[in-house]
Amino acid sequence: MRVCVCISDAPRITQAPRDQKVVDNGIATFICFATGNPSPDVYFRRAGGRRIATRHRHDRYSVIAVPHGAVLRVNPVSARRDDGLVDCVAENGLGDPATASATLQVYAEGLGESTTRMHVSRHSPVLFPHQYFSRTVDWLTEIFGG
Question: DSSP letter at 115?
Fold first, then answer.
């Protein structure tokens, strides 16, 4: 006879997306990781709205599922359509979904503000903690064509 002790955990965000200020027509990248058992489904949505999904290859929104998380890339950002909150949601059917929000502030070019961007390249592997993602960020650079 085999006995299985299964421990279930509600989802928990372990790395929340960060607030960003991006020039109109620039690129915004949000990264989110979560834990739970079973492993949660991690996705993005506009503040309280519907799930953001990549529908076509040339969509402005690219969502890539990575182990224990997701990456959202908006290219190009639009002040009229993208300014505001972006939610990261993790759910696995246990308890309430875990959420974390980030603000995307889009400004017109030439206003003198500095641009804060999260560059996904081989020079910024700290975006992916080893316990979640052992490959280098070159993989995402290849996917996003960076």
Answer: P
- Over residues 78-126, the pLDDT tens digits come to 988 999 999 999 999 999 999 999 999 998 876 544 444 444 544 443 3
Per-residue pLDDT, 56: 77
Domain boundaries of the chain, sorted by first residue: 9-144
- Determine the Cα–Cα distance for residues 120 and 75; give it in Å rounded to an integer: 13
CB 52 within 8 A of CB 63: yes
Distance CA(110)–CA(46), nearest Å, equals 27
Cis peptide bond upstream of 38, omega within 30: yes
The CATH code for residues 9-144 is 2.60.40.10
Give the whole-angstrom CA distance, residue 70 versus residue 32: 6
How far apart, in whole angstroms, are the C-alpha atoms of residue 76 and residue 25?
5
Nearest to 128 by CA among 67, 58, 81, 85: 67
Sign of CA dihedral 79, 81, 82, 84: positive
pTM for the model stands at 0.72
